[in-house]
Amino acid sequence: MKTFNKQNIVIIGASGHAKVIIDIIEKLNHFTIVGLIDSYKPIGTQIFDYMVLGRKEDVPLLKKTYNFNKGIIAIGDNWARKINYEKLTTIDPDFEFISAVHPNAIIGKNVSIGMGAVILAGVIINSDAIVGDFCIINTKASLGHDSQIKKYSSLGPNATVGGHVSIKTCTYIAMSATIIQSIKIGKHSIVGSGALIVRDVPDFNMVYGVPGKFIRKVAKAEKYFYHKNNTNT
């Protein structure tokens, strides 16, 4: 039986999305998680068997203490993920980012998966699709053949994307939304839960409904994860 030394990594983020990434990393068994990095949680805060070791600013020192130079950003919000990547690479330009693909995801022929991307359980990505850097393809979502989702964008749980679809940067396709074939979705846009998209969506647009209709413009960095008591648009 082959043996190999697993490299040490950290998880950047210590909230709910970190839990699903920890689960993927443990199942893959390619890396050893030495702890979490979070600028808002107290040092010692624990998720599963792992503790917050410090903030992003502490990474250069923590690397020496815990012998790591790699990690993965576990932040669900697209813009926050982008900002954390940019801050961390400024603090430590040599830090490397890994991707995480759940072993129960189905990845087709010639699929390209970018740096820092996260592919969750039950996902289907069909042939010649491209997943950009730091994208999230959430539980049971599907990305059709020859489709492309650009960096910092994400598909919510059970979202369905047809073939030859283009999704630009920092866009969120919410849970159970459906996008038919050959549609273009602009950057920094939001496609609401359960929407059916049959026409192109411009940049900075929020679209809901069946079929999808324009609701309002979206600001860059706008939050889109709503709680049940804050769903008005």
From TrEMBL:
Which InterPro entries does its entry note? AcTrfase_PglD-like, Hexapep, Hexapep_transf_CS, PglD_N, Trans_hexapeptide_repeat, Trimer_LpxA-like_sf
Active site, renumbered: H145 (proton acceptor)
Alphabetized, the UniProt keywords read:
Acyltransferase, Repeat, Transferase
The reply to whether Transferase figures as a keyword in the UniProt entry is yes
Highest rank taxon of the organism: Bacteria
Where does the chain bind substrate?
S15, G16, H17, G76
A single Gene Ontology MF term assigned here is: acyltransferase activity
Q: Which Pfam families match?
A: Hexapep, PglD_N
- Site (Increases basicity of active site His) location in chain: D146
Limits of the PglD N-terminal domain: 8-88
The record's annotation in PANTHER family points to: ACETYLTRANSFERASE, UDP-N-ACETYLBACILLOSAMINE N-ACETYLTRANSFERASE
NCBIfam families the record matches: NeuD_NnaD
Q: Which family does it belong to?
A: Belongs to the transferase hexapeptide repeat family.
Entry protein name: Acetyltransferase
